[in-house]
Prior knowledge:
Elements: E1 2-13, E2 18-23, E3 27-28, E4 32-36, E5 41-45, E6 49-51, E7 54-56, E8 58-59, E9 64-68, E10 78-83
Amino acid sequence: MVEKEIGRVSSYFEHVGVAAIKLSGNLKVGDTVKIKGHTTDFEVPIESMQIERKEVKSAKKGDHVGIKVPEKVRPNDAVLKGEV
């Protein structure tokens, strides 16, 4: 499986454990993404996603989404999605 970059972390909201991601590809609820950076490297299943505080099931290139993450992420961390 090939991992393809589908976005970059733009900011992280520590008090709610949410990463804001600027997408350069498509993302939907049910996908699993890997967030990778200098000190970041983990996978997270997308269980919910928001655009401007509204729940959405999918998002596309150019959208800015928020997802829950289990650990701290940093601006400019890569968001990768596996593709067969």
